[in-house]
Amino acid sequence: MPLALLALAIGAFGIGTTEFVIMGVLPQVADDFGVTIPTAGWLVSGYALGVVVGAPLLTVLGTKVSRKKMLMFLMALFVVGNALSAVAPTFGLMLVGRVVASLAHGAFFGIGSVVAAGLVAPERKASAISLMFMGLTVANIVGVPGGTSIGQAAGWRVTFTLVAALGVIGFLGVARLVPDAGRPKTQTVRTEFAAFRNVQVWLAMAMTVLGYGGVFAAITYITPMMTEVAGYTEAAVTWLLVLFGIGMFLGNLLGGRFADRALMPMLFATLAALTAALLLFTATAHDKVLAAITLTLIGALGFATVPPLQKWVLDQASAAPTLASAANIGAFNLGNALAAWLGGIVIAAGLGYTAPNWVGALLSGTALLLSFLAAFLDRRTRTPGRVVAGAVPQVERQPAVHH
Question: I need a labelling partner for 335 at 20 to 30 A (CA). Which of 305, 351, 365, 401 fits?
Answer without folding.
Answer: 351
